[in-house]
Amino acid sequence: MGLCTSSLSGSDRLQDKFYQTKKWKYTIKDRTKLKQVENIVKPFILDDAVYKRVCDVMLDNFNRGLGKETNAEARVKMFPTYVRSVPDGTEEGDFLALDLGGTNFRVLLISLKGQEVNMESKIFLIPQHIMLGTGMQLFDHIADCIYKFMKEQKLEKKTLPLGFTFSFPCKQLGLAKAHLTTWTKGFKCEGVEGNDIVQLLHEAIKRRGDMEVECLAVINDTVGALMSCAHSDRQCAIGLILGTGTNACYIEKLENVGLWDSDYNDPKEVIINTEWGAMGDDGGLDFVITEYDKHVDKHSINAGKQIYEKMISGMYMGEIVRLVLEKLRRNGLLFGGEGSAELSQRGRFYTKYVSEIESDVDESDFKSTKQVFDELNLTNFTDEDCRIALYVCSLVSTRAAYLASAGIATLLNKMERKDVSVAVDGSLYRFHPHFHDLMVEKIEKLVTPGIRFKLMLSHDGSGKGAALVAAVANRLRDEEAMKEKDSKPNED
Ligand code: ADP
Ligand code: MG
User: 357-410: per-residue pLDDT in tens?
Assistant: First the structure.
């Protein structure tokens, strides 16, 4: 497991980066042009007072989501997950896991034995027509994929428990009962919202009638990341996703969970899935919204929803950068005013380009930046254009990292634990060259002095985490069955 902590070398790297990206200014001789560029990118530069205000808004949203009287109206839903304890390392057995929630759909086979974890997995595509089709089509497709995977692994005859990582906002009614509240991240399948996704999965498996699979637990990818890291690090108490979307979960005391409707046994805690992507849907973040964010939101399939997510996550970041570059070009400040069909095409500037461009530290050659420009069929560019594009990318990704940091700092301050590990998963965090360092730097500024934290990369949380939760559920079920058997001694 790649363990990343705050370190001197991290902040050195960061200073280096700022030096690199800000240096472009001094190379622009034309002061009027410099002013014009600065005017266009200015809305992305926010000072610490603004991020502190974001923290205040977040805390208010978290509390409203947790409150019994306020939850119904709250945008940030703070769903209790029914996951009460982190794994203790005794989990054992073979489990299937599903990971659905954005860019890829995966089926996994996970063998647990103490700290030892073995995994086989296969990625399946969810075609666009299924993402926007009916729920029945979606779950039939999922059941097909499970069957294909089991056949390949020669498991079709086996009875296997399954853990389902389903990363959309769900109201959880039990460990294996979760009603989808609303689709996000490009999915919109008819007839699923408001329904129990475990039941829909079981019905699809039954329609096929050729496999024995029972879903014992449904979790969110944030919970998967937390569980997976907690398996080896007992301080882990926050799970964060920075991928297609963004979301976080954390361990909360039951006394703070107004909507808690189950027992108050030890441990008197439960993991809360914040669904923080919806922050700002009530206008609460309007003080940081730019015209580019408004544009992205307006053209999404869920306009007005997931405002915080749209300023941060991988599904939207490239598009924000594209809009800024296009504006600079239209104003004659980039590419001599000459663009390309690709640059003008919505969604065509991929978020991975942001990582690629920002990995150009040696200004003299701009190798990756030029390659991205080539891919976008831009021909008329100079080193100055490369420098401006790098600056734009760095401003947009830095704002995203700082906004996510405000969320994490708010959770850390709320939890009041001395030492917390944050498990992070998602391609944006994994592949962006500075996201980790930027987050450490900003969280340190926003967190209450004395609280120590560490951001660690969670490897395959969505698979391993789901298997761990299914394993615990399986053990509890076996124990229940034993108890029942013991209470009816005459029936054998
Ligand atoms: P998911 O969130 O769907 O489980 P990922 O964690 O892989 O999947 O995140 C996918 C998102 O990450 C996509 O929106 C994509 O734009 C973004 N992404 C992929 N590669 C990179 C990269 N090299 N740098 C930054 N973002 C990336
Ligand atoms: Mg994922």
Answer: 999 876 568 999 999 999 999 998 998 899 899 999 999 999 999 999 999 999
Mutate to test the pocket of ligand 1, among 100, 103, 219, 435 (most ligand atoms within 8 A of CB): 103
Tokens for 55, please give them.
């923290």
Least confident of 28-37, 100-109, 300-309: 28-37
**DSSP codes joined into one string, 55-94:** HHHHHHHHHHHH-TTTGGG-SS--EE-S--S---S--EEE
pLDDT at position 4, please?
Answer: 37
Contact yes or no for 139/166 (Cβ under 8 A): no
Tokens at 57, concatenated:
């808004």
Tens digits of per-residue pLDDT, 342-352? Answer: 999 999 999 99
Distance separating the N- and C-terminal Cα atoms of the chain: 48
Pairing label, strands 177-180, 212-219: unpaired
Q: Would you say the pTM of this structure is higher than 0.90?
A: yes
Residue nearest to atom 9 of ligand 1 (CA): 243
For residue 252, list its beta bridge partners. 270
C-alpha 150 – ligand 1 centre gap (Å):
27
Q: Cα–Cα distance between 323 and 109 in angstroms, integer?
A: 42
Give all strands of the β-sheet with 159-166 in edge-to-edge order: 116-124, 105-113, 92-100, 159-166, 212-219
Marked catalytic residue, from 17, 77, 185, 414: 185
Angle at 100 between CA 240 and CA 239, to 5 degrees: 15
Each residue's pLDDT tens digit, 190-207 = 999 999 999 999 999 999
Chain segment 317-360, per-residue pLDDT in tens: 999 999 999 999 999 999 999 999 999 999 999 999 999 999 98
Beta strands in 81-150, from DSSP E residues, in sequence order: 92-100, 105-113, 116-124
Say which amino acid occupies 417.
R
**What residues does 178 pair with on adjacent strands?**
172
Q: In whole angstroms, how far apart are CA 138 and each of 131, 215, 418?
A: 7, 17, 44
Atom of ligand 1 nearest to the CA of 355: 24
Q: Which residues contact 201 (CB under 8 A, 6 or more apart)?
A: 139, 142, 143, 164, 215
User: What token pair was written down for 172?
Assistant: 């959880």
